[in-house]
Amino acid sequence: MGRIAGRTAESQTGVAAFHAFLRSEFSEENMDFWLACEDYKNTKTNSKLMLKAQKIYDEFVKIQAPKELNLDSLSRELVLKNLTNPDISCFDPAQKRIHGLMEKDSFPCFLKSQFYLGLFKQS
User: Fold this and answer.
1) How far apart, in whole angstroms, are the C-alpha atoms of residue 100 and residue 32?
2) Which range marks the domain in which residue 100 is found?
3) Which of 20, 33, 50, 77 sits at 20 to 30 Å (Cα–Cα) from 57?
4) Radius of gyration (C-alpha) of the chain in whole angstroms
5) Contact 15, 112 (CB under 8 A)
6) How many domains is the chain partitioned into structurally?
7) Distance between alpha carbon 20 and the CA centroid of its chain, in Å?
8) What is the pLDDT of residue 29?
């Protein structure tokens, strides 16, 4: 997944196709969360880190969040504990969990989908 978030036109097309696939599978929150975490890790100031951490928690991790993730209770508790003093690794347990879900479930399905196969028809 680290390579998916690259800056080339080809990788951006791949990200967009994977995101569209996830949307069709009603699991786009996984990619949205993963990308939000990557952005969070690039935050430079502590005040922005705290604001972004709370926003990510409220949007994805909190029970009944607008884009609530399918997280186990341990991952959710670790993130909540990390929010007391957020740093760039605050969401690592949850991000690793979501990465694993996408890697083992969503991404293999994507590779067989018309979203992926359509990338080659455009070339």
Assistant:
1) 15
2) 26-105
3) 20
4) 15
5) no
6) 1
7) 14
8) 96
Residue 106's Cα: distance from chain center in Å? 12
Residue 119: inside a domain, yes or no?
Answer: no
Which DSSP category does 117 fall into? Answer: H
Q: H/E/C letters for each residue in 10-57?
A: HHHHHHHHHHHHHHHCCCHHHHHHHHHHHHHHCCCCHHHHHHHHHHHH
What pLDDT does residue 4 have?
A: 45
Residue 45, sorted as left (phi over 0), alpha (psi -120 to 50) or beta, turns out to be: beta
**What is the C-alpha separation between 25 and 27, in angstroms, rounded?**
5
CATH number of the structural domain spanning residue 65: 1.10.167.10
Q: Answer whether residue 49 is part of any domain.
A: yes
pTM attached to this predicted model:
0.85
DSSP labels, 64-97: T-TT-----HHHHHHHHHHTTS--TTTTHHHHHH
On whether residue 56 sits in a domain, the answer given is: yes
State how far the Cα of 42 lies from the Cα of 35, in Å rounded to an integer.
11
76's CB contacts (< 8 A; 6+ apart) are 61, 63, 94
